[in-house]
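Reopening this ticket.

The earlier resolution said the output was attached, but the attachment link was broken on my side. Pasting everything inline this time so it's all in one place.
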Amino acid sequence: MNHTLRTLGATLAAGICFGTAAAQETTQQALTLQEAIELSYRQSPVLEAQRQAQEAAVLNRKSVWGLRMPQLGIGAAYTYMSKDIKAFDLNKEKEAALQAIGQLPLPFPIPGEVIQAVQGLDLSLTLQKKQFATVGATAAVPIYMGGKINAAVNAAKIGVEKSDQEAAKAQTDLFAQVVERYYGLSLAHHILKVREEVTEGMRKHLDDAIKLEANGMIASTEKLYAEMFLAKAEGEQTAAGLQIGTINRALGASLNREGNYLPITALFIVDSLRPLDHYLERVRQNSPILKQVELTRRLAEEGVRAARASFLPEVAAMGAVNAWDWQLTQLAPRWMVGAGVKLRIFDGLGSEYKHASAKRQVRQVEAMQVQAENDLMTLTEKLYNQLKSSAAEVNALQATVAFAESYLDAKQRAFSEGIAPSSDVVDARMNLAKAKVERLAAAYTFDVTLAQLLALAGETEALGSYMYQPDFRTIDND
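Inline output:
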């Protein structure tokens, strides 16, 4: 049963017709390739994770900018000491003097009121009581940190760019995956239709064989041969139907939404491609992989600058103000400002080794960068050649399918006249099915390879432009 489906609008001029049962028609969801790609972009957990990583990188960059800003703080403290801090204490000498005076032979006694008054005198000066509390504010301003702050700020900026490229890489990978599974499901539907045609043809062939045997025109073995291959065709049809379910679930996983999807964007090929140099240059300019490696190299260079800062002095200004106190001596200052310089003289050669390690990391990333570009250039050429080969294979199989159809028609007529064995008809039908499947598989390989090439070059949005080329051709069962 054929079901007419909506097409891709202005993109495609023809749709694909599928379906084996009327019950499936109400549950299948027609889906274009563009709709599948957009749906995956909106709902993919992988892309959502990358979006969160991008936001985290932006926030980290903002936090690093705070290293340039003054550091302000408010603090409170309570102190309890074992005793008061005194400038002097003459109370012991006072007691000794009173005792000495009492032993002197004075002509008149000293009044008791005077002695009590002297004993009550506190002949000490307290600088700070043993309990006191303070509340104040502090400030520190970095003036020069040897380039450490600049390196941290630049590294955070590179981190934002790197997270953007990681998100772009995740999106291009998802694009290639969706195209592969979408056209894989389309191919599975096509193969099912081919298997249905084979089963229907084998069933008709068996009916003809039964009639010819009844008329004594063929031996019974010819009919048994037809029965055997009908059973085989039915088994292959069942397997093809199960394969659809597996690939459909895989596509649903890419879209992060379950459903019974019916792809309506046709398999296609184009015979003329841009020159190989075009794709090589696009990969060099746009590849998220190469951009990530370049950012990793820049990040390693900032690591060298940060390690070099350990050999340079650090200069900072500082200040503090006492906003409130309890039992704090009046001699304590209410505010203070100052500046400090710190220079490491020797730290066990740790800074030297860190600096040398950072420079080795730069060289390591540079070597990786060269290797990555070489690998991507090789992969680009391989994909390009695969595209050309798949298009040529589809064209060659086009003639093979036409010949196989004509050959099958001739063998069917010969069998009906009793001049050809049943095996000739079966072989002709199987060869036609094989040629159709191979042609569809070659078109599938072309489309998936094109998506991989565009993903590698960072030009996934250019896929639709190939559908407007004059030599654009859809590939189906016909």
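Reporter confirms the inline version is readable. The first strand starts at residue 29 and ends at 31. The radius of gyration is 44 Å.
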